[in-house]
């Protein structure tokens, strides 16, 4: 989820490209670059800020009126000058910028290298520039069309060539791209904020469409070469709204991004037939001979660790523990060279998590990192890394990074099972492929209801309880943390079976209780716990999966999530709970994206 801009028009391209890139800075990036045709291809890149890129032009600006630019958020390969976009072909006549993930890039790269193409970066993107070079026969648009026919994955691409000084080719598949329409100029962008200083009229490309953009016109084709009429939109957002794609807060935008984020997490790792491809990321010697697994994390990532521990315990004979990093660092633990320590961290910079893995590593453990940030300290110190690929998470409260962590852990549990037992549960992986669509349907179906409940009930509460059993307990813990951290309402998560050992004393008429019921083997037990709550007139909002059951005696409100494998239910139940926290916080008038006393990356002990 990087940022793309492109320009073709009357003025020199550098200024509009830099201006557009600056508007995308809010998304987070690790490097940036632009390519301008004048008449040869000139490429400028930096591992750093846009200001550093701008500084490359202090001695003069190329006069070319065609160019492309990019802010990179690393997915394949470390943040570095070489890996920054644009990427060129062998002859340095073609330049490409890309958002998304090319799933089959390794295969393509091998083929292209065997044909003599020389690669200069570790990125998946570079295969595109070489494919365009391979298929180029005088028509850039046709070469791009032939190149994308080879790609599996998601992409938004902008391509220029020094042989076509008035032509910008753009194409998209599962990754947004809009063309801003000006007076004898067009600006291409992955995100609306980059357009707003130029125009309010834009054309939106659809999946599979290729646009041939010149100073004079834009011609759009579909996969079959048939000319298409692009869809025109009028943008009414102000610049601040545009950064959030029209959502009131980044948190809400990121909640809604989860179907896309999970598709990205799965991309290249799980084939359509449910086949697992993780050997590149998790080498066999990382798992060979392990007896113990320690999943180490803080906050929301710790709740993902609880989830991962449950899955690994359920599917292997390993000794598995979820550990809070701040505790692990200072307690006596049995850890040696048969231990696999899995550190989970969105930022990859959390001080406690780093301290804990350094301790495990010093005792001989092998370290696997699950993180969202390529090149983070955790990623660099680990023996192997599984990236969550959720895209930059800007809101302080973690939402899409959390469900992407769960997704990685689901894949990992199946992979460990395969490695240790020679087989895994194919149904779990088959159902995992359905999760993005199911998330989208939950968001569509439940938002208004959850908003009303959260605004009226949770926002007004002083104490709330989140109940679950088994895997639902880990989800309940995440639900209560979200409510505390952004709505500042006290919440406590409890194993439902523990209520009767004391806490039931706090259940009084009207106390809001959010309960989770997705684990079939624990459903009867959970419902009988809820009867105890109802007997004290507690007010239960139940998130359940089994639509056949009668919940009338146990819940005041029931929200059903679509049926899935019980081990995957936490990926779905997270969404209504995130929305509950969000709408309780907004009803209380809080600055949701910057909650008090919490930083996005906690780099102190
Ligand atoms: C909650 C939240 C924190 C983080 C925790 C760990 O929404 O954001 O609880 O989950 O500080 O951060 P990472 O995952 O960056 O290690």
Question: Key features?
Answer:
Glutamine Phosphoribosylpyrophosphate, subunit 1, domain 1, eight-stranded antiparallel β-sheet, 605 residues, seven-stranded antiparallel β-sheet, Rossmann fold, 3 domains
What is the topological layout?
Blueprint: E1 3-8, H1 14-23, E2 31-38, E3 40-46, H2 50-55, E4 66-72, E5 87-88, E6 94-102, H3 105-114, H4 126-135, H5 140-148, E7 153-161, E8 168-173, E9 178-181, E10 186-189, E11 201-204, E12 210-213, E13 218-221, E14 227-228, E15 231-234, H6 239-243, H7 250-256, H8 258-266, H9 284-287, E16 292-297, H10 299-315, E17 319-324, H11 325-328, E18 339-345, H12 351-362, E19 366-371, H13 377-381, E20 384-387, H14 400-421, H15 426-432, H16 435-458, E21 463-468, H17 471-487, E22 490-495, E23 512-517, H18 523-535, E24 539-544, E25 557-560, H19 569-587
Parallel strand pairs: 16-17, 16-18, 18-19, 19-20, 21-22, 21-23, 23-24, 24-25
Antiparallel strand pairs: 1-4, 1-10, 2-3, 2-4, 5-6, 6-7, 7-8, 8-12, 9-10, 9-11, 11-15, 12-13, 13-14
Helix pairs in contact: 3-4, 4-5, 8-14, 8-16, 10-14, 10-17, 16-19, 17-19
Bound molecules: fructose -6-phosphate (F6R).
Fructose -6-phosphate (F6R) binds next to helix 10.
